From TrEMBL:
Keywords: Decarboxylase, Flavoprotein, FMN, Ligase, Lyase, Magnesium, Metal-binding, Multifunctional enzyme
InterPro entries in the record: CoaB-like_sf, CoaBC, DNA/pantothenate-metab_flavo_C, Flavin_trans-like, Flavoprotein
Cofactor binding: number and manner: Binds 1 FMN per subunit.
Name of the gene encoding the protein in the UniProt record: coaBC
Phosphopantothenoylcysteine decarboxylase as annotated region, ranges: 1-188
Record pathway: Cofactor biosynthesis; coenzyme A biosynthesis; CoA from (R)-pantothenate: step 2/5; Cofactor biosynthesis; coenzyme A biosynthesis; CoA from (R)-pantothenate: step 3/5
Domain named Flavoprotein: residues: 5-176
UniProt-listed Pfam families: DFP, Flavoprotein
GO molecular function: phosphopantothenate--cysteine ligase activity; phosphopantothenoylcysteine decarboxylase activity
Name this polypeptide is given: Coenzyme A biosynthesis bifunctional protein CoaBC
Amino acid sequence: MLAGKRILLIVAGGIAAYKTLELIRRGRERGLSFRVILTEGGAAFVTPLSLSAISEHKVYQELFSLTDESEMGHIRLSREADLVLVAPATADIMAKLAHGLADDLASTTLLATSAPVLLAPAMNKLMWQNAATQANVATLKARQIRMVGPDAGDLACGEVGAGRMAEPHDILNAIETLLADATLKGLKALVTSGPTFEPIDPVRYIANRSSGKQGHAIAAALARMGAETTLVSGPTRLPDPPGVTTRHIETAAEMLAACEAALPVDVGVFAAAVADWKVARPANQKIKKDDSGRTPALELAANPDILQSMSHAGARRPKLVIGFAAETENLIAFAKAKLEKKGCDWILANDVSPDRGTFGGDRNTIHLVTQANSEDWPDLSKLEVADRLGRRIAAHFGRVHA
């Protein structure tokens, strides 16, 4: 979704400036192009040569450079960008922007742009908490200037608190949100993700190997495309996707209840790897080992079938119900059988055999199975799968051509 988008990156003076090299590298992997303005302070932490080498574009520094202004003046720099990003955004440059000061190339360009502006603040925690800084933050937000971060943690000065610049992947996610195409604006989406944990006793549980990466990526993609998105997530190590309302659950019963509470929606994508069974009567206390070596007998009971329940939700049924079929053999045949049995509209079938590395990995090979036919998608990253599914959903609702 970011392919071809042009970012004007302003690197101000702060130790976090070194992160901009990784930011540019990761952004270019997603199809972004970068022009860079480096302030005098920023040049104390990162060199023009390194920024130029990784962006593959000239780095601009001087407002009154005859060469730079003749080749690409600051007005043109500001107008050709799809988004202006300031990272790190220091207290100084934020104050200049809040008060309309323009005494260098960076601040002048910020005043001259009509593109969206995104700030990634980075500074000492007391500077961030200072009343003057917070007043500037309020002024900038009132002008619809967006911010990502700052994060809390260890600071370069040795203190701990809010002031760390957001990590590159969080900044890129914020850029995606700002540059979303709004294809699905006005639609409501429900996505499930991750595993479920079914308790055996207060310590142990039944689960599976799902990381939640695919479901979280789908929720983020639908939100970027403008859908009002709710994510119902089992236990994962993933951060909540930006722009998404996330409900955290543990068991299948809790997931079903959260899904029912989210209805009605236009589209439901049920990507969670829900445990098929639970322990019929979980122990109230930790089950102790028997000195005789005998193992406890666990009676299992069926969990609620969330995909089937959502497919037969009557008047509250999503207009488009999409399930997943994680299989280790007979992929298409089992997916078609699941489509009929569950009553959903589409099934995304994927091979989760151990040698495929799908569970916990970053790539997926999808087969989209519908009542009419099946589509074999190429090997894609899970982010690419999410984007492709978003476009197929948009086409289903007549928002774009397939």
